[in-house]
C-alpha cells in the first residue's frame, strides 16, 4: 500500500492556494494537503498534522517564509521546505537554499511543483539513509573499539601480494605504537616481538605460510612506551589462491599478560603450598569422600617408614582410619569419634573437626585436625595428625610453674599487676586488687587499660614511666594519692619491662607498696631532727643572750651593789647609783621577757589547730593598729581570691601577719605613703603568702645573712629591739613553712611564706 504524502501549505491568498491544488491534482502524486494562512495554525499543524513536506508563500500578513522556516527548524520535524513566491531575487534564493530550504518556485511556473516535491522527498530520504548508515557505522566501530578494549585484543589484515596492511586501534594500543606515525605491516609487527622470542615466532610463521591455514602464537613484547614485558597470544588465518599460495593473513592478537601472571602465581602458589606441606612437621593426609588416602606429605612418609607399616606407596589408595589406628595405637572409642568427625566434615555437617587424644599406653598424645578438601573435582578432607606429647608435658610443667608462681604471687607483700605490650591488664594479685579498690573504689579488670585507673592529671607521668620501662630501664619513684576520706597514702612504685629472647617488649610489670607508715615515721624523724637542730640553735642563741645580754646587766648590778655598800644613804652619789641600778634591773627584765616569749613559741606548737580566714585576720590586724595606720597614712590591701583560708595555729599566724605589716609601716620612706599588700595563692605543690611594701628596703648583700637573727638591727632611726623578724622566722618554721625575702633599697621589700599543701585541709 502506497502511503499518501502529507503536504502542509502556508498561503494567505485563496486563489493562489487553489491554483497550487489544481497543479498537484494533475500530477500522479498521492497526497493529502492542509492549507493554513497564519502563524498560529502553522505552529499547530507542525505539531498535530506532522507533514512530510511544507510549501510556503514568501510574503504573509503576520510573518514571512524566513520566520516560517526557522520555526520548522526549531520543531522536532525534519522535512523538506519548498518556497513558492510571486517574485524573488536571485541573492535571496541562494541564501535560503544555503540555509537548508529544499527548493523554490515562482507562482507563474508551478508546473515543476510535483517533480520538485518528489525530488525533495527523495533527497531527504537519501540523506536520512546516509546519516543512519553513518551513525550505525560509527556505533559499530565504537562498539568494536569498546570490545577490543574490554577483551584487550586487536586485529590485523595483511595482503601479502600488495603488501597493504590494516591494524585495528586495539592492536596499536597493545603494541604501544602511534597509528599516526607507524605504518602497519607484517615486518613492523614482527619487529615488536621480544628479542628472546623473535626467531621462534618468525620460524613458526614461515612454517605456517608453507603448510597450514591457521596458527596459534604465544610470545612476548616490550612496548617502547612501557618498561614492562607484555605476554601476547595471537591467532592467524592464512588465505590461499588457486595455486595454494598464501595471499592474505588475517587474525587477532590478545594481551594475556594478566592471565599469564595469574597462571605463574598459581603455579608458584602450588609449588609453594607443596613445599610448605612437605616442610610442616604434622603428618598431612588428603582423603576422598570414601576415606581413602589420595595424597600425603613428607612427614607422613617418614611416619610410615618409622612404624614399618608395610603398606605400598605410603598408604595412598588405602583407608586412612585403618592405617592411623595401627600407627598411633588408639582405642576403639577414640577411633569411632575420629571417624564420625571426618564423616561430618566431608558431608558438610561441620566446618572443622579437632580432637586431642592419648595413645593406649598413655605415654603419647596426639591431635587431629580435619578440614574440607578445597577442590571442585571431588569431596574429601585434609587431615593433620600432630604428635603433641612434648606440648602436653610442657603444659603440665607450665601449669605446675604457674601454680607455684601464683602462690608466690599471692603471698608477697607487694601489689603486682601484669600488662601486655598495649598496657592492658593481664593478671594481678589480691594485694593489687585490694589496694586499687581502697584507693580508687574499683579493682583492675583483665583486658582493660591501666591508665583508666589513675586521675587525669597523673596519666601523662604514668605514660612517661611506662615509656622508660619499655626501654630496658626500671622506672622507680615514690608518690602519694589523696583518699576520699582526706588522708594521704604514699606508695613505692616500680615499672619493669618484660622482654622476649629477641629483645622485644612483650609486657610490663607494675609493683607498688603502701609506705605511708614508713613515710610518716620518716617525716616524724625529720621533724624531730629539725626540732633538735632548731633547739640546738636556740641553745646557742640563748648562750649568746646569756653571755652578752644577761651578763652585762648582771655585772652592772654587781658593781652598783658594791658601790652602794661604800656609800651612805642620802648622799647624791648614792641616788645616782640607785638610778643606774634601776636601769640595769629593767634591762635585765626585758631580756628575761624576750627569753620567755621565745620559749613560749616552742611551747605553743601543740596548741589547737583551727580554720583561719585570712581576710578576717587581716581585718582584725587593721582594726588593732588603726591609729598607727591613720597616723602614717598607710594603705593595707588584701588579695585572697586564690586562697582565703587554711588550717593552722591562729596565734602564730596572727603574730606573723602583725609583725610583717607593722614593719612595713615602721620602715616607711619619708617621701611616700606606705602601701602594704598581703596576697595568697596556690601552686602545684605548696601555698604562698606574700607581704609586699614600698618602704625603705634592706641592703641584702650587706645584712642578708643576719636578717632573721635575734637582736639584729640595721636601721636605728626607728625604735626596736631586733626581735620581730627572729620571732616571725621561728613561728613560720614551727608551722612547717619557710620564709624568704626580696628587697631593694628605697624601693621596698617582699616577704614570702611557703607552706605545704597539707595546711590547706583540715587534718
From TrEMBL:
It catalyses: ATP + protein L-histidine = ADP + protein N-phospho-L-histidine. SMART domains: HATPase_c (SM00387), HisKA (SM00388), PAC (SM00086), PAS (SM00091), REC (SM00448). Residues 215-268, 475-527 form the PAC domain. The modification 4-aspartylphosphate is found at residue 57. The keyword Phosphoprotein applies. Its EC number is 2.7.13.3. Keywords: Kinase, Phosphoprotein, Transferase. Residues 545-759 form the Histidine kinase domain. It comes from the Bacteria. Residues 6-122 form the Response regulatory domain. Residues 140-212 form the PAS domain. InterPro entries: CheY-like_superfamily, HATPase_C_sf, HATPase_dom, His_kinase_dom, HisK_dim/P_dom, HisK_dim/P_sf, PAC, PAS. It holds the Pfam family HATPase_c. This is histidine kinase. It comes from Mucilaginibacter antarcticus. The lineage of its organism: Bacteria, Pseudomonadati, Bacteroidota, Sphingobacteriia, Sphingobacteriales.
